[in-house]
């Protein structure tokens, strides 16, 4: 499958999901949301070199846990939220491991800015988070913070670096919108903001890492 073809398909799926979520068409969300990561998994598998390298298997595992997270978060309730949080935590742990395999010198700017952003977000939502969720949320925020820093320190091609780093920061932004919406304040057009940044994050990470993988 050509990247251009996948981009069109992925954009259509994503737009339909965002529209369904915005207008409250639950059946539409249940149909389209699982397709977001399934399409990335299929595309990545088809494009990656065969036999699959270890890094590609790990990326597919990360995408699979993201798919699970998407599915769990379609349902309401604390149990499904925790399952979704745990799934995305696994996604970030896989990303951290894979990104750190090509680590270059420390990115001091990222190591300062990203934690400041995370601490500011935690300070904003802290008064509104249930005590039972406090530690899981804190652990998750730490993981995504480390993931973004690792993305900023990859030693790879310029194009691959830019794609993955932009994707990582969009992931941070998406989860920030989600955390504020869930725990603190209602955000206008929250579905558009959360899912719009999320789908772009996963797209940029997948495309960016393929640009590294296919040059290996």
UniProtKB/TrEMBL annotation:
InterPro entries: TMEM86B-like
Signal sequence range: none
Name by which UniProt lists this protein: Putative membrane protein YhhN
Family listed: Belongs to the TMEM86 family.
GO cellular component, one term: membrane
Source organism of this protein record: Arcicella aurantiaca
Membrane disposition: Multi-pass membrane protein
Gene Ontology molecular function terms on file: hydrolase activity
Residues passing through the membrane, by range: 5-23, 29-46, 58-75, 81-98, 110-127, 133-151, 163-180, 192-210
The keyword Transmembrane is assigned to this record: yes
Keywords: Membrane, Transmembrane, Transmembrane helix
PANTHER family named in the record: GH04784P
Subcellular location: Membrane
């Amino acid at each position: 499958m050509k990247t251009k073809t996948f981009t069109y398909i992925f954009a259509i799926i994503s737009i339909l999901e965002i529209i369904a979520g915005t207008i409250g068409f639950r059946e539409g969300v249940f149909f389209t949301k699982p397709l977001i990561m399934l399409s990335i998994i299929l595309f990545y598998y088809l494009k990656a070199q065969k036999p699959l390298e270890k890094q590609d298997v790990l990326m597919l595992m990360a995408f699979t846990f993201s798919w699970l997270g998407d599915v769990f978060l379609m349902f309401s309730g604390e149990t499904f939220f925790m399952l979704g949080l745990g799934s995305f935590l696994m996604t970030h742990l896989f990303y951290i491991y894979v990104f750190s395999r090509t680590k270059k010198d420390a990115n001091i700017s990222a190591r300062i800015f990203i934690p400041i952003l995370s601490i500011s977000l935690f300070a904003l939502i802290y008064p509104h988070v249930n005590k039972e969720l406090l530690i899981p949320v804190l652990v998750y925020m730490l993981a995504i913070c480390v993931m973004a820093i690792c993305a900023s320190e990859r030693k790879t091609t310029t194009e691959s670096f830019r794609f993955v780093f932009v994707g990582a920061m969009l992931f941070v932004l998406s989860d920030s919108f989600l955390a504020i919406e869930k725990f603190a304040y209602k955000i206008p057009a929250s579905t558009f903001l959360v899912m719009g940044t999320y789908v772009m994050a996963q797209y940029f990470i997948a495309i960016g890492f393929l640009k590294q993988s296919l040059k290996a």
